[in-house]
């Protein structure tokens, strides 16, 4: 399995929309909603997620994750002099659990370790699989609330 990344382009919008909407639909358990309401609200969620990330992290890198040359996921990283902020990582539903996300995260941690920077993120408290993955990679919980945990990986105390 060859896992690579490349910069996001405008041509990736349909893939991102489909993947983000599928993820949000799962989080919100929207399959029982009336289709007109579901489609509208999921579209609003997609626009809000993309717009918020780009507004809050205007200098971030937005990259498409490829597995064997096929669209598989998305990572949105904001690097500052003091940290690498993992603003978003998402794998398409059919690619989850196959190791591609873990491989990309390990690349990010290797880059952070070389730069001596922590990696920080926020994760939905209901995303148990992601939380377990982050913990396996050496992230610890540093704060948060009932909706999202704040987590951090420190290069001096964790391995990748």
What keywords describe this structure?
globular, alpha+beta, seven-stranded mixed beta sheet, 29% strand, 160 residues, 7 strands, 39% helix, 4 helices, single chain
Topology:
Elements: E1 3-7, H1 13-28, H2 35-56, E2 61-67, E3 70-79, E4 84-91, H3 100-115, E5 119-124, H4 128-136, E6 140-144, E7 148-153
Parallel strand pairs: 4-5
Antiparallel strand pairs: 1-2, 2-3, 3-4, 5-7, 6-7
Helix pairs in contact: 1-2
In short:
This protein is an alpha+beta fold. The chain has helices at residues 13-28, 35-56, 100-115, 128-136; strands at residues 3-7, 61-67, 70-79, 84-91, 119-124, 140-144, 148-153.
Radius of gyration: 16 Å
Shape: globular
Overall structural class, as computed from helix and strand content, comes to alpha+beta
Helical residues, percent: 25-40%
For the sheet with most strands, the description reads: 7 strands, mixed
Distance between the termini: 20 Å
| Total count of helical runs of at least 4 residues | 4
Number of strands: 7
Uncertain residue segments: none
The run of helices and strands is EHHEEEHEHEE
| Strands in their spatial order, largest beta sheet | 1-2-3-4-5-7-6
**How much β-strand is present in the residues?**
25-35%
Mean pLDDT: 90
